[in-house]
# Entry
Amino acid sequence: MKKQTPVETATSIPGRYISFILAAFAGVIYLNTLSHGFVLDDVAVIGSNKYVQQGVGGIPKILTSFYWQGYWDLNSGLYRPLSLIMFALEWQLIPNNPFIHHLVQVLLYSFTIYQLFRLLDMFLSGYSIWLPAAVTLLFALHPIHTEVVANIKSRDEILCFLFFVLAAKEILKHRKATIAAVIYYSLCLLSKEAGLLYLPVFVLLQIQFGARTFKQASMALLPLAAVTAVWLGWHTYVIQALSPLRVSYTYADNSLLACPDVVSRVATGFMILGMYLVKSIWPYAMSYDYSFNQIPCQTGFPIAGIVAMAASGGLLYYAYRNFRKAPLISFGILYFFSTIFFASNVIYIIGSTMGDRLLFAPVLGTLICLCWLVYKLTGQLSAPKVTNPAMMIVLLAGLAYSYKTVARNAAWQSNSDLFETDMTAAPGSARVLYNYGTSVLGSAPESGSERNAVLSTAIDLFSRSVAIDSGYRDAYINLGAALHKLGRYEESIKANKKALQLDPTFTTLRMSIADDYFMMKRYDEAIAEYRWGFAHNLRQTKMYTFLGTALFNQQKYDLAIEVFKEGVTFDTTNAELWANYGNALGISQRYDEAIVAFSKSLQIKPNQKNILYFLSVTYRSKGDMAKADEYMRLSQ
# Structure
């Protein structure tokens, strides 16, 4: 290995230029995200988060609440206040504007890349400066990072990694955990729980690049262990004492929970680990979701799981055998497996089957190994100039990464763009199908030639979703809604009854079933369901309209009048209810009351030709021919 000259270090002028150039690349590659909106969980952590929207005033509550509490009470055991505090400060500055959050996201990522190069140059000081530059460049441009940078919610990933980098620089420089390192590590933990996985990485850095024994490294890092203990105590207190009871993950969150036994679960976990390893080199397919059943459980003789297990075991064995002889490769391998440990689901089941964002930190280990191999095989480990064969290979890879990154960024512009794009990457996910189906259903026009085609597409997506997951209540509900809109009422009833069977507490579904009965003119069944709804304190304007109309059509006019009268008391501004009330009164020969009801409908919604006609008929029935003729002229 070649000893670097001063002009090749990160503290020299060329080194500083490299830092800024790499940071600039990182910012430019994500410029097309600045115009994006709030997507996916951005709504939960910003757009509809009551604590974040209090700005500075919400910070005390953020510090004493679990991660999602500003949006809902589903305590999943997460405590990540730092990103929420930043969102609150940004909201205080410019409220309800995604641009400010995306801008900070890109600037923060650029700063992270700047600091990453300076860290890598510190413990790769025995090599050409272009090796850490190559690693940093590929990390900055890697397409797998699009979710982290383009999706504001993933600020926690960037912050945790950034503070790891800053802490690692301090530890390498001073060969111990300084006060600054303790602060950085504390901020890392407050960003995301996975910061715990950096503890063994700090030990590795001390041993492999700080010339320390394991005992010496451990003693030098004792303050970090103390910080970890304090953080664990506070984390436990917030999650268990200050928050609602924790919710349990289900197979819908992590499909490994659907595996029939431990063997298939572990085998599937190793297969996912293998997929992560491949994607850290080239992300062949990217999706915001890989939930049930995009990655089916490995049962029987799980070849993919066995291959991934063998590959992982082989890499770890190589890292162990070459711990001293090839410290950089050994570090890259051990770093990858350390930081991917939680996400792999091999031993510890998390709340997600798989996630592109979970590769944000681990991919660094893979890139260290790959770039070292490229420089080693081309004989450029001591190359003094950027114009070397190894860097040309890296630049070509960087171009490929850049193209895929910019293209992938576009998918994160909105929920509808993301849902449509990722249908091709994760067609086996019931949630992906459901989300896209919901987006399509919401875009269906009220009328026109395209309406039926759009609704049919939504029905197909929901049908495919429930075919994958027969326990998906929400997919059945939306399937029923789409079928109802298309006039397929019998099928809508079946879908809603299935959803009600899955969740008997969702009693409003009975009113959807009642609506289907009404549209099919099965009035007795519709009336029974609406009566049940009113008896159980379910109140909607449409219920009064449909129940009253059903009774009217059965010529039960007195009962219809009672329902419509209660309806116009419940909703005094509904023109249709007042009109129906007037019709029921008119056919019962209560003409004066009918005229009042019709007049009220016109007051709410003027120039209704049919109501003017009804008034003419009512006045004629009453014997007031002058008024009858007047309203008849107006109705023409």
Observations:
- The two ends are 96 Å apart (CA to CA).
- The CA atoms of residues 118 and 243 lie 40 Å apart.
